[in-house]
Specification:
The protein is 78% helix and 0% strand. It is mainly alpha-helical.
Length: 206
């Protein structure tokens, strides 16, 4: 009989789940922010910052737990990668909300709203998936769908850039919108990275 050097400690999985719940809170605020009048956005942006800070605190606790644990339920490198990816997803959503607020975009283009809709679905799938991370092989539908959404996001991103450059709007507004759609695309990329990491963990643990 082989010796099992894996820990049954649930604390890591609970913190992964908590990180995913921060994403849900963040995307809810981002949706409210893009639909709000310009003058109401700073308050929503501040709430989004608070969620991002809570996500940072969760990651800090997770890293402390990792450093203090001799035996872990997953490989240490995988735990660190998952934690970083979850944090990156939150960071880019927070950055997008900050840019939309600082740039005082009067009307957020429909294609940007479509990018945010894809991010919302990614957040929902991640929140559903993280509690099942104890059995990563059960999450195949999760990583397949996230990858599909990211591919859709790539198409939206390219179309958004084309629409912006063809719009004839003021060059400064073009730069502002380009920054925003690129930041949202980076968030989508991080969700894909997270899903790919889960897939890699599944193969390693099976």
């Amino acid at each position: 009989m082989g010796i099992n050097f894996k820990s049954s400690d649930n604390a890591f999985f609970e913190m992964f789940t908590q990180s995913a719940m921060h994403l849900l809170d963040g995307i809810k605020l981002l949706n409210q922010l893009v639909g709000a009048p310009v003058e109401e956005r700073p308050a929503l942006r501040d709430q989004l910052h608070s969620v991002e800070q809570s996500a940072d605190q969760t990651r800090h606790l997770l890293n402390n737990k990792l450093n203090a644990s001799f035996v872990t339920p997953l490989d240490r490198e995988d735990i660190s990668s998952l934690s970083r990816a979850l944090d990156d997803c939150m960071d880019y959503m927070d950055e997008a909300g900050d840019l939309i607020t600082l740039y005082k975009i009067q009307t957020v283009p429909a294609i940007v709203l479509s990018q945010i809709e894809l991010l919302q679905r990614c957040c929902e799938l991640t929140a559903e998936g993280m509690p099942a991370l104890r059995k990563p092989e059960s999450l195949r539908d999760y990583w397949v769908e996230i990858n599909r959404l990211e591919n859709e996001g790539d198409k939206l991103y390219r179309k958004a850039l084309a629409d912006i450059f063809d719009s004839g709007m003021d060059p400064l507004e073009v730069i502002k919108l380009k920054d925003i759609v690129e930041t949202l695309e980076k968030a989508m990329d991080k969700f894909e990275y997270l899903a790919n990491t889960v897939e890699a963990v599944s193969f390693k643990e099976s």
